[in-house]
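Hi Y.,

Following your request, here is the sequence exactly as I used it, all 299 residues.
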Amino acid sequence: MSNVAAAKPGRAKGRRYIGSEIVFNIILTIFVLVCVLPVLHVIAKSISGRAPVVAGKVYLLPKEIDTSAYASVFNDPTMIKSMWFSIEWTVIYTALSMVSTILLAYPLSKQYLPGRKTLMIIVLIPMYFTGGTIANFLWVKQMGLIDSPWSLILPILTSTYNTIILRNFFESIPPSLEESAKLDGCNDWQILIRIILPLSTASLATIALFYAVARWNNYADVRYYINTSSKFTLQMKLYQVVFASSSSDVSMVEGGKNAVLAETIQCAAVVFSTVPILIVYPFLQKYFVQGVMIGAVKE
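Below is the corresponding structure, written out as tokens. Let me know if you'd prefer a different format.
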């Protein structure tokens, strides 16, 4: 009888575990669908014919396959130029941001740093209090960066959030490694470059992805600081396509049956601007979860 009584709580516990797993999977599936279905809808509309799009018959699968919208996007030299401009300055921004974040996070991870707590408070203040758009614009203007690509980099060069993640990871590295390196005659720069950074690959890759995605998706600062159209990023061009072309039913391609609906051009431009960052993500994905979890938890 005792064995039967002991088995019942175990079965009940197993049923609760299975039930919670089913609920979790349902919730996760809903979130995945919420993220994926809009993307599928945009892709379907971008390669669908004019008639079904106008009639509102395109949902998740394309109808009357037509790639003329993509032809319009690729035939636009300003769109291609903006893409390369975005890639160039995203790479520059990511590289400089990584350097500044490393040089800030590494000293802050040292317990013996004089005034460490005070410096950390100073670093945290901009995370909670900012001067706002007007103050940022006046600062950029006083620095002479209006209509300069550097206005897209310097004001947002270092992220407090990313600095905290990297600092926490540096703190998790055993101090004995640095002590051994110092006994071997290494200075602080050699310890950072030869020991700390090679051990921080996961966190560095994750933070680099954060910076790259943030710069790639941002277009508000381009609207504020850039006046020359040749310096517009791809996201700014996408903004112009989505909002400017919505004022007319048909884009300036050939008329009649071969006309390209503005809505399909918008969808094609959205897909076109998303592909480059999606190409980069698979190469960093394996470091992503590991890097966030290691840097987010302080032992």
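Residues 2-46 form the longest helix (45 residues).

Thanks again,
Q.
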